[in-house]
């Protein structure tokens, strides 16, 4: 996400004095609600969906995630790279390639 976009999200929140509502709990709830609205786009079909609606709901999820990063003073690159390192260890490519199995179910683990 560019700094310009981050600044725009922050300005939107600042201009409305909405920081008072941005508790971690409220933001987590909002992320889950918006993620559910995103899922609703695919409720009846995996292939027939309104891309514009998908983009709007996905944007809502991303904005709330950005707000939570700010509220908790987290760096998105740091937390994503930390989680990716854990995922890479948990799901080694040589065992996980082409498999949807949980890491505990790998045959050669």
What would your notes on this structure say?
The chain is globular and about 55 Å long. 4% of the residues are buried. 65% of the residues lie in helices and 0% in strands. The protein has helices at residues 3-15, 24-40, 51-72, 76-90, 93-96. The chain folds into two domains: 1-74, Orthogonal Bundle (Helix Hairpins); 75-109, no CATH class. With 109 residues, it is mainly alpha-helical. The protein is built from five helices and no strands.
Key traits:
mainly alpha; Helix Hairpins; globular; 2 domains
Task: List strands and helices in order, with pairings.
Elements: H1 3-15, H2 24-40, H3 51-72, H4 76-90, H5 93-96
Helix pairs in contact: 2-3
Nearest-angstrom radius of gyration? 18 Å
CATH level-two architecture of the largest domain: Orthogonal Bundle
Strand content: under 5%
Elements, N to C (H/E): HHHHH
What is the CATH top level name of the largest domain? Mainly Alpha
Largest sheet: none
| Distance N to C terminus | 37 Å
Shape: globular
In short:
The protein is mainly alpha-helical.
């Amino acid at each position: 996400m560019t700094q310009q976009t981050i600044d725009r999200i922050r300005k939107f929140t600042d201009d409305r004095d909405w920081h008072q509502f941005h508790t971690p709990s409220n933001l987590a709830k909002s992320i889950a609600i918006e993620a559910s609205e995103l899922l609703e786009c695919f409720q009846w079909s995996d292939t027939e969906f309104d891309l514009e609606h998908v983009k709007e709901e996905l944007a809502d999820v991303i904005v709330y995630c950005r707000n939570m990063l700010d509220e908790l003073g987290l760096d998105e690159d740091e937390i994503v790279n930390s989680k990716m390192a854990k995922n890479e260890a948990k799901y080694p490519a040589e065992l996980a390639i082409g498999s949807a199995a949980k890491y505990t179910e790998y045959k050669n683990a």
